[in-house]
Structure formats: structure tokens, C-alpha cells
Amino acid sequence: MRQRTLADGTFEKYRKPTRREVFLREMDKVVPWSQFCARIEPVYPSPERAGRPPVGLEQAVHLIC
Question: Looking at residue 28, what is its pLDDT?
């Protein structure tokens, strides 16, 4: 059995959101992600090419921002 800590959900609802979480939440409201991905998709590398396979387009876009 694992020992419980104070961070195990008891105080999770009182936690202040991080700056990153606030930023990403605001970006989701402002940026039209489907249009943004549609513009990047033609130049994004395809998985058929030799070498390391690229990550998914949506995941890559969220990593950039």
C-alpha cells in the first residue's frame, strides 16, 4: 500500500494554476486551432519519409506554443 501525501487530491482543489496552465487555457480560447493546423499541414513532414517519424500535427502545434 502506498503512503498518502498532502498532494494526493486533498489540497488539489486549492492549488493555484501555474502560469503555463493559464497561458494554454487563454490560447485555446483565442487561437482557431483547426485553421492553424490546416495551414501547417501541407508543409509538415509526412510519416512515410525515411528517418525518425514525426509526432502528430496537433501535438507538435501545442508543443510549439
Answer: 86
